[in-house]
Each structure stands twice: as C-alpha cells, then as structure tokens.
Amino acid sequence: MKTKVDGKLIKVNGKNMHIRQMGTGDKTIVYLLGYGEPLPTAENAPLMRMLAENTTTCLIDYFGYGFSDSTERGHTNENYVQEIREVLAKSDLKPPYVLMPYSCSGIYAEYYAHKYPDEIEAIIMLDCTSTAEPLDLGHDLLDIEKVTLAINEWIALGNEVPKIGTTDFEQFCQIHLKSYYETYLADGYTKEDLDVEVLDMLIGMVEIEIETPTPEEIEAYYAEYLPLGYTKEELDLLTCIPNHDETLNAQYKALPENVKEVMALTHKIADQLPILMFNAPARDNEHQTSIDNHLKRLGNVKKHIVVDGSDHGTITLYHDLITSEVNEFLAKI
After folding, report:
1. Phi/psi at 243 (nearest 5 deg)?
2. Helical ranges in 157-310 per DSSP H
3. Which of 126, 226, 283, 300 would give a disulfide with 102, using CB separation of 3.0 to 4.6 Å?
4. Domain harbouring 85, CATH code
5. What is the mean pLDDT of each run of 10 residues along the chain (333 residues)?
6. What is the pTM of this model?
C-alpha cells in the first residue's frame, strides 16, 4: 500500500511500518530517526534526495511515528533492530547497509553493528546519543503523562499555569513533582533554579489549540523551507501528521536501559567498521567530555566533523556539507 509521500506500508509483526525509498545506487543508506521527529520520511527527504543521486536511500518511520502504527511491543534494542531488519528485507533492500542514525538511534545502530556486523557496511552518525556513559533523562523522576494530565485539567477549570511563589504553584509541585525536587535539591541545585525549570516544563505540557494559519503565514512557511529542498506536499504533511504519544513515551523511558545494554558490549565497533561521525558544537565542557568519551568508546572513527553553526535540532539540515562528506567517505570504503 502506497502513502502520500511515495512510501510503502510494510507488515512488521502484524503492524504497518512506513518506509520510503529513493535512488538506485549500489550502496544502501538507511536513515534512522531521532526521538520525536514528527514525520521522519518527509522531514529528512531533502538530505536523502541529495544522497540518492549516488546511492539507494531509505527512511523508516518507527512504530509510533508518522504513517506507521503504534505498538505496545517492548522498546528494547533487540526489538528495534529486528523491526529494522524485517522492514528492509520485505522492501527487497539487501545488506550490507550503511546506517545513518540521528540522535537516540545511534544506540540502536551500535547494537545492530555488534549483533549483526556482516549486515552493516558503515555507520554515519548524526549527533548521536553517547553510549560511553549512563543516560540520565531527569524526567524519570516524574510521570510525565500524569503531570501533563494534571496541568491540563487545571487549565480546563479556567486557571492559568500556577506562577512561581504562589500557593498554587507550591501545592502543585508538592503533589506532582516531589521526587523531582528532592533529588535535585540533594544534588546541589537551588529551589529557585528548579522552580524556573519546572515552570517551563509545565508551560510546555499545556495543550494549545492550534489556530488555522493565515495565507500570509502559509506563504512565509513555504518561502522558508522550499529552498531547503522540501516539496509542498512534504511541508503540508509535516504540519498535520501526529505521532503516537504513548508509543513515544514508552520509547523515551526505555532509553537509559538501552544505553546500559550497549555499554556492556565491550568491543570497539569503529575498529572493525568504518564510521563517520558528525556532531553539533559542544554546549559546554561537560558535553565536550561526553563527545570525547563517545569517540574513545567507538574506537578508530574514520572522520569526526563538528558542524559549525548547528545544534542538535538543526544538524540534519546541513544537507550540502553532510552529502559532500558522506560521498567522499563512501568512495573510500
């Protein structure tokens, strides 16, 4: 069954998984999405179209993303890798593959390379989650779904988001964020800083009624993103395809355990497999140490590129630089 962006829905474990393919080159690049991308098969289409001039490229919407179904299946490394393998095999895409993981998908790509090295020709990492240290999400200290429900029920009663310093704010935090405060206060954070962080969190959880954009706003949207290589169809879809929040929340909660599992795999995959690694500039010294430790853990990375001007959310938009470096990298393997 085809979809609106020329992809296909493939049955994987009895559910529909969406995959989009471009190009006909000898090498097959498999883009693996970052957490929370609304419609990866459209969002990253400009980059993959450029790469498809010399390769076969494909993009996968994991379960819970884009056109794919949601799932209650466990969000383990093993399950993600098996789902990736199955959707590729059923799409007649044969290994070895060049994996291109972004963000948290680096965890799954490393696991794949450890488990099935003969199926991977190379890995191109786009600002991937480090597997050199445990992953502390912070939000593990609270139930996001319950807090989201509580703050939206509060708003539905005609109230505003409780303001810092008010009795309402203190009571709300005592009920819903007690463990969060206790843990971070014990780690040396001040209550003043935590209050600001929590207020931002609560504001972000409020369900906002989306207003219909004006014709002028639509034209401005097209004017900004069409030059980046998107089609109008892709841009329209990016504004209206929702992810399945329950599936994404379950994926998010599983990330620390998935990192821990990969950390226990000891051999350095870059000593056996060509790896090209892109990173956004480090935010601070702690982040730089994390990047350095990840490089050491991987081993002999063929090339490491810091994409000046980018950040974690925009690095995949540097199409020209990434395409040029990837083509040069692939020509040597």
Report:
1. -85, 165
2. 167-176, 178-186, 191-205, 215-225, 232-238, 245-263, 285-298
3. 126
4. 3.40.50.1820
5. 80 95 95 90 94 96 93 94 97 96 97 96 97 77 78 89 92 89 83 87 75 86 93 88 77 91 91 96 90 95 96 93 97 93
6. 0.82
